[in-house]
Amino acid sequence: MTDVLRRGRASLAFGFFAQGVAFALLVTRIPAIQDRYGVSDALLPAFLAAVPVLAGAGSVATERLVRRARPSRVLRWSQPVVLLSLLGVGAGDRVAVLAVALGVFGLAVGALDASMNMLGVSLQRAYGRSIMLGFHAAYSLGGILGASLAWAGAHWDLALWVSYLPVVVVLLPATLVGSRWYVDGDRGGVAEAPGKGGGGAGVGFRLLLPLCLVMTFAYIGDSTVSNWSAKYLQDVLGSSEQLATVPYNVYMVTTLVGRAVGDFGVRRFGAVAVVRAGAVVAAVGFAVVAGAPGAWVGMLGFTLLGLGLCVLVPQTFAAAGRLATDAGGPGASDAAVARLNVFNYVGFLIGSPLVGALGDAWSYRGAMLVPMVLVLVTVFYARSFDAQPDRYGGGHERPRTADVGRGSNGL
């Protein structure tokens, strides 16, 4: 394994970490953002829905953009925009400012998520073994730090911009420096050879449909935790505002643990078994949250949710990249990841309003049963994660490191 790959893996992991910090700082302070701008409970779902809609548009645009530019360049410049727009959310004082800041955040996050996972999939292909969960573990670690900083901000009653500014000041230059070592995997050039699907040709929606559904269901579950856990604990289970920031932190801790060991599980038992087990554990977690008599039992449910949901998204990206590469080459993998990433936001778009609407019309406890059922459906689609054949082991030829594309800094 070359130093170029090792540096590329470390720098990309830091990019995932930085995004975890930024996203957690946004979602765990939703009640504070709502209070600062005077957003009503009726209008809040519209704001929450606008972000994934625009992020989906950003992901679609990225699919086209990477036909002309390397994914590493898209990631290099989208991440600072995400951080600056986060600061804009905290520094504004009018609803119009909030709308613009969240709009920019959404578009940039779409480009960032798509390009980040493109690089992760291509690096896994170059390494020849499962490493995708490790990148998402770095994201979870960032989420833990971001949620902890959000807890401190709520505890000390700090203004939002006071909580956000130090993070942006530290992470923005660090991500720009780290981006010098991004590696575009085995995508040595932007254009692919004829017949290899450089523009994503040969990657039909039918091929990706099971994975798109799994991604949607996983993010319906994840968005339920991200957008509603604080309000659920505070409004339904009667916790304090300070304690209401904890469930997301607990969720991210268990997500980190699951992802830290997940790659070893995939290598030992295979992706199918890991995905099935994760779906079952997540469904149990939702059941516990729905029936929790108090805040601490609710914490147990969110703990199980983290352990279950954590494996689904990374393995879905990895499976899509593998299927697309087999069908049309590395360029097709980039297109498949970008298209699959759209269903990340479809899940958020459905999950947030769905839980809110059911909570208002019925009960928030009952609303938790819907993502439970959807996550269970993943069990029936788990065969889509089978390598068929195992391209990364069992005597099959592995990609040569000499064929790996250069890093974005020309290494």
TrEMBL record:
<feature type="transmembrane region" description="Helical">
    <location>
        <begin position="42"/>
        <end position="62"/>
    </location>
</feature>
<dbReference type="InterPro" id="IPR011701">
    <property type="entry name" value="MFS"/>
</dbReference>
<feature type="transmembrane region" description="Helical">
    <location>
        <begin position="131"/>
        <end position="152"/>
    </location>
</feature>
<feature type="transmembrane region" description="Helical">
    <location>
        <begin position="302"/>
        <end position="324"/>
    </location>
</feature>
<feature type="transmembrane region" description="Helical">
    <location>
        <begin position="336"/>
        <end position="356"/>
    </location>
</feature>
<keyword id="KW-0812">Transmembrane</keyword>
<feature type="domain" description="Major facilitator superfamily (MFS) profile">
    <location>
        <begin position="208"/>
        <end position="411"/>
    </location>
</feature>
<keyword id="KW-0472">Membrane</keyword>
<dbReference type="Pfam" id="PF07690">
    <property type="entry name" value="MFS_1"/>
</dbReference>
<feature type="transmembrane region" description="Helical">
    <location>
        <begin position="12"/>
        <end position="30"/>
    </location>
</feature>
<protein>
    <submittedName>
        <fullName>MFS transporter</fullName>
    </submittedName>
</protein>
<feature type="transmembrane region" description="Helical">
    <location>
        <begin position="97"/>
        <end position="119"/>
    </location>
</feature>
<feature type="region of interest" description="Disordered">
    <location>
        <begin position="392"/>
        <end position="411"/>
    </location>
</feature>
<feature type="transmembrane region" description="Helical">
    <location>
        <begin position="362"/>
        <end position="382"/>
    </location>
</feature>
<feature type="transmembrane region" description="Helical">
    <location>
        <begin position="273"/>
        <end position="296"/>
    </location>
</feature>
<dbReference type="InterPro" id="IPR051788">
    <property type="entry name" value="MFS_Transporter"/>
</dbReference>
<keyword id="KW-1133">Transmembrane helix</keyword>
<feature type="compositionally biased region" description="Basic and acidic residues">
    <location>
        <begin position="393"/>
        <end position="403"/>
    </location>
</feature>
<dbReference type="InterPro" id="IPR020846">
    <property type="entry name" value="MFS_dom"/>
</dbReference>
<feature type="transmembrane region" description="Helical">
    <location>
        <begin position="203"/>
        <end position="221"/>
    </location>
</feature>
<feature type="transmembrane region" description="Helical">
    <location>
        <begin position="158"/>
        <end position="183"/>
    </location>
</feature>
<dbReference type="InterPro" id="IPR036259">
    <property type="entry name" value="MFS_trans_sf"/>
</dbReference>
